[in-house]
Amino acid sequence: MEIAVSQPDIEVSVRDVFGIDTDLRVPAFSVRDDHVPDIDPAYRFNPEVTLAILAGFAQDRRTMVQGMHGTGKSTHIEQVAARLNWPCVRVNLDGHLSRLDLVGKDTITLRNGQQVTEFQEGIIPWSLQRPVALIFDEYDAGRPDVMFVIQRILERDGKFTLLDQNRVIQPHPVFRLFATANTVGLGNLSGLYHGTQVLNHAQIDRWNIVATLNYLPAEEELAIVLARVPEKNTESGHRLLRQMIAVAELTRNGFAAGDISTLMSPRTVITWAENCKIFGNPALSFKLSFLNKCDELERPVIAEYFQRCFDQELDASWALSEERTA
Question: Which terminal CB of the chain, N or C, has fewer other CB atoms within 10 Å?
Fold first, then answer.
């Protein structure tokens, strides 16, 4: 499928579109196509990370967004692209993604009743030749052979050689490259991100911008949860969500101190709030949303976090309704 427009044809105000106090204007497309992500009107942008991503789009800077899980790294890039109408393709670098998936391979097809062998482009050559923002998700989990393929397009000129085709691909003028990672290529130091790799420093050095997106202050996190669960936009709902976010912050502090090995991300807080709508019981929803994912030996510590924030024993509160708890 081809992209509808080959070049950005308008400029947008960062102040008007993203609510950041700057006079910066960035190129954008006036026409949306199937590759442009859907706009999430409730999404809240982190100003520093947003400016880093916009620099990637406007100035062709290779931009990586690093941070803990559940902070919305990939979504952040997609939502910037959505507001610029910039076509976007997202690839997860899991252990099953191979070099052939990225580069391409010969395939057998039927043409005029005859079997013929044709080269099918992988995602890298396809994206390079189009005005596309290519996002590599879980960048620090990629296999070494895959990472060395990617390293070719991190060079300044970004040319890509298809050896099997004896062809050199020149990047499209508005091709853009982004990545998200839980670590900065240093491996699984915390024990939280199994499967991440220690990356070649020469490759990390080729990324022009590395932005960090971590957990937000409580009031900002409250606004994000309210945007997803607007039914809680009441006095009692605010009180309940603040209690839930307080539990989440205790798990994060406990993880940082080495007391527990699992923490609550903003995504989990949203899931907890959504499950409260279903079950009408914050304690039961907490168990189903988070506690059951934790190590059994650590559950008493996490139950204590709940007790501190809700002033109730976790086991004794299963029968309480959401209204009574709030």
Answer: N
- H/E stretch holding 43 reads none
Does residue 51 sit in the same domain as residue 145?
Answer: yes
Q: What is the DSSP string of 132-173?
A: -EEEEETGGG--HHHHHHHHHTTSSS--EEEGGGTEEEPPPT
Show which of 177, 212, 247 is a domain's final residue: 212
CB 172 within 8 A of CB 128: yes
And the tokens for 31? 């026409």
Output the DSSP codes for 14-30: HHHHH--S---EEEE-S
187, 93: one domain: yes
- The predicted-structure confidence for 244-257, as pLDDT tens digits, reads as follows 999 999 998 898 78
**Total count of domains within the chain:** 2
Q: Which residues constitute the domain of residue 272?
A: 218-325
What residue has token string 């947008």? 12
Q: What is the pLDDT of residues 149-206, one digit of tens each?
A: 888 788 777 788 776 667 788 899 999 999 998 875 444 444 444 444 556 666 788 8
Q: Are residues 101 and 182 in the same domain?
A: yes
CB-CB neighbours of 238 under 10 Å: 14
Q: What dihedral do alpha carbons 138, 140, 272, 242 form, nearest 10°?
A: -120
